[in-house]
Structures are given as structure tokens and as C-alpha cells.
């Protein structure tokens, strides 16, 4: 049937069944994660291949006005960065790929020395950044994926509460952007 999707109840049942099968057979579990490589998110990317990744650009040197510009829009515009206590930062949704960018600080083009730097054909320096898929951005560690997908099948409620409490990482994202997630 075109345009129909499985119900959430059906998917939950399949998830529990798969968790049970993987608990019984550890080699199947290794095959599942090594061969299929993040199967659920790959399925989502097949359905929705163009998912922008929220990307933070930050300038940590003082200046009254800071903008960022890059080849994501063909260098057509500049995006203002918001001042915070420690730096200027901005959140730009970008599709996965490799991007070149530069900062405009008080009307002068500059590059950040703390990020990757590339020299272009004109001899000037720019920053570059590789944007990965959203899933890799949120969960860079494969073992974390395993805990999220099969948490309710492998751990009791008490164990999963402790796991959440002790495995929590601090955010590198400015606090005023966390509300977006």
C-alpha cells in the first residue's frame, strides 16, 4: 500500500522481539550493529535524505560586530553572530558536506585559528568544516546507539535510571541554543 506506514505499536513490538533475539544470540547482535551500521537511522535517511544539521559557528575573540559567511550559499550573504558572555555564536542549519567559511569582524575578513584552516587558490586562509549527518552529530559513539535502541530490553528500570544519570555528558553547546533540541 502506497503512503501507509507501520503503526507505532507494531514497531515497538518488533523492537522488543529484536531485542529478545539479540540477547539470546550475541553473534547476531554483533552482525546487526557491524554489518548494518545504524540501521534505524539509515532507514530514516532513506525516507528523509535531506535533514539539515544544526551547526554552531563561534568567534571567541572580542569585537563589536561579528558575521559569518561561507560557501553553503555561494558566499552571497553574511549571518550575524549573537554575543554571549564568552564569545559570539550562531546556529546555522546546514546539510551534511564540506564547507569553507570566514568571519567578518568589524568589517575585516578573518579566520579562526582554533578550527581547521585551508589555504585557497588566491593564497588567503579560510576555515573549513565537515558537517556529518544528524545522527552522527547527536550520537558519535556506536555503543550509545545500542543503549538507546535496546535500553528497555536489556536493563531494568533501576539500571536504566542509573545509566542515564552516570552517562550524561556535558553539553558543548551554548545554553541559549539548547532550547532548540
UniProtKB/TrEMBL annotation:
The record places domain AMP-activated protein kinase glycogen-binding at 53-131
What Gene3D superfamilies does this protein's entry cite? Immunoglobulins
CDD domains the UniProt entry points to:
E_set_AMPKbeta_like_N
Mention one GO biological process in which this protein takes part, according to its record. signal transduction
Q: Name one Pfam family in it.
A: AMPK1_CBM
Q: Name one GO cellular component term.
A: nucleus
- Give the coiled coil ranges: none
- Can you tell me where the transmembrane regions are? none
- What Gene Ontology molecular function terms does this protein carry? protein kinase binding
Q: Which domain of life is it from?
A: Eukaryota
Supply the InterPro entries for this chain. Answer: AMPK1_CBM (IPR032640), CRP1_MDG1_kinase (IPR050827), Ig-like_fold (IPR013783), Ig_E-set (IPR014756)
For this protein, the record's PANTHER family field holds: 5'-AMP-ACTIVATED PROTEIN KINASE , BETA SUBUNIT (PTHR10343), 5'-AMP-ACTIVATED PROTEIN KINASE SUBUNIT BETA-1 (PTHR10343:SF84)
Describe the family membership recorded for this protein in Swiss-Prot or TrEMBL. Answer: Belongs to the 5'-AMP-activated protein kinase beta subunit family.
Its recorded name reads AMP-activated protein kinase glycogen-binding domain-containing protein
From what organism does this protein derive?
Hemiselmis andersenii (Cryptophyte alga)
The organism's taxonomy opens as: Eukaryota, Cryptophyceae, Cryptomonadales, Hemiselmidaceae, Hemiselmis
Amino acid at each position: 500500500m502506497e503512503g501507509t506506514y507501520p503503526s507505532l505499536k507494531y514497531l515497538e513490538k518488533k523492537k522488543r522481539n529484536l531485542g529478545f533475539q539479540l540477547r539470546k544470540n550475541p553473534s547476531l547482535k554483533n552482525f546487526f550493529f557491524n554489518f548494518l551500521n545504524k540501521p534505524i537511522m539509515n532507514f530514516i535517511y532513506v525516507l528523509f535524505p535531506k535533514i539539515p544539521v544544526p551547526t554552531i559557528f563561534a568567534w571567541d575573540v572580542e569585537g563589536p560586530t561579528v558575521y559569518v559567511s561561507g560557501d553553503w550559499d555561494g558566499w552571497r550573504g553574511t549571518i550575524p553572530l549573537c554575543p554571549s558572555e564568552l564569545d559570539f555564536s550562531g546556529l546555522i542549519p546546514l546539510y551534511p558536506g564540506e564547507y569553507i567559511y570566514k568571519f567578518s569582524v568589524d568589517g575585516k575578513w578573518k579566520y579562526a585559528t582554533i578550527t581547521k584552516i585551508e589555504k585557497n587558490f588566491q593564497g588567503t586562509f579560510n576555515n573549513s568544516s565537515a558537517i556529518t549527518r544528524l545522527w552522527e552529530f547527536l550520537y558519535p559513539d556506536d555503543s550509545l546507539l545500542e543503549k538507546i535502541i535496546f535500553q528497555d530490553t536489556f536493563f531494568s528500570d533501576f539500571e536504566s535510571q542509573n545509566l542515564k544519570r552516570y552517562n550524561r555528558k556535558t553539553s558543548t553547546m551554548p545554553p541559549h541554543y539548547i532550547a532548540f533540541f
